[in-house]
Amino acid sequence: MQDVETKSDALLLENQLCFPLYACAKEVVRQYRKPLEPLGITYTQYLVMMALWEYGRMTERQLGRILHLESSTLAPLLKRLENQGLIDRIAPESRAKKLFIDLTEKGRAMKRQAVEVPEAMRGCIPLEKEELLTLKDILCKAVARMHSET
């Protein structure tokens, strides 16, 4: 990024941080299509499944917080995963309105296939290992700070 000299220079794509972040994220998600195809899920559904494999049963709100997804995005995603038989939405025994999201047996079994995905994605961002670790650390720090301000 060049130093911004005039107000109109602030509108040049080459002076934006958001544009290379967007372009890189979009390309990474595109590259996930091929290894996720045998699983029959999208990248965002893959994120949901990874969260459930890691943390187990949780509420939709907890899942949304972990994945930084709004309910309006998450609800239809969960419905599709439920229709595929990968998750269950379980009403609690009490009268509380919280629904719990949990993996079905099929959803748990998918994890065995999914372990191939990270290996297939290795090298999708052509940077050195140290650069990748630095990039991940910086992005995690930025996300944490952005969420602590809201």
What is the CATH superfamily label of the domain at 40-114?
A: Winged helix-like DNA-binding domain superfamily/Winged helix DNA-binding domain
The helix-strand sequence is HHEHHEEHHH
Number of helices: 7
Distance between the termini: 27 Å
Radius of gyration: 19 Å
Low-pLDDT runs of 5+ residues are: none
CATH topology annotation of the domain at 40-114: Arc Repressor Mutant, subunit A
Q: What attributes characterize this protein structure?
A:
7% strand, single chain, globular, 150 residues, three-stranded antiparallel beta sheet
Can you describe this structure?
The protein has helices at 18-36, 43-55, 60-67, 71-83, 105-114, 116-121, 129-148, and strands at 58-59, 87-90, 100-103. It starts with 17 loop residues before the first helix and ends with a helix. The protein has a domain at 40-114: Winged helix-like DNA-binding domain superfamily/Winged helix DNA-binding domain (Arc Repressor Mutant, subunit A). By secondary structure, the chain is mostly helical. The chain is globular. It contains seven helices and three strands.
